[in-house]
Amino acid sequence: MTIVIWVCAAMLAVAAALVVTRMTLGPTMLNRVVAMDVLIAIVVAGLGLEAALNQHTTTLPILVVLSLVGFVGSVSVARFAARDDKGERA
Amino acid sequence: MNTVADVISAACLIAGSSLSLIAAIGLVRFPDLLARMHAGTKPQVLGLLLILVGVGLRLRDWTDLGMLLAVALFQLLTAPVAAHMIGRAAYRHGTVREDTLIVDELTPALDDVGKG
What we know:
- The complex is a heterodimer.
- Chain A is mainly α.
- Chain A is about 80% helix and about 0% strand.
- The mean pLDDT of chain A is about 85.
- In chain B, about 85% of the residues lie in helices and about 0% in strands.
- Chain B has four helices and no strands.
């Protein structure tokens, strides 16, 4: 079980690195929002893995909160995305 | 019994992490926002659900299962809404690449509305 979880953690780490790459490259704010969504999902997955490894449940409320806060963040950025960032087009 | 649950849980965790990795690769390699959004929502949500199933099988407690179920439910409810909002904002700002679209039903619909 421990080996399985470390393999999963390695995969998630590579995934997070790729997502951060996309977040850095952009090119628009909305691309970064999509990347942030995926990054939050990866964090939730990582916390879940940690809970499965140590078989404790202290981090489970954090999962609930993260999944809600991520949604609010991406929706508000999409809603109020500045209309005049003409400089960066996909 | 516990061994069986552990094995199924391990399989779910590996499948979920692989889907997360696939989503991240798609996010880096796809050419424009709508394709990236596709990579970012569908494999990612399925991967997260598989990981939650794996964690639930490992913890085996009703209270924890309820909380994991809440996370899964929120994810299923919010991911389509967020993706829809982002896609709409991108379209309104003209940052969607027209040459990669195969079908575009929104432009004619908006034109019709404009004609009144």
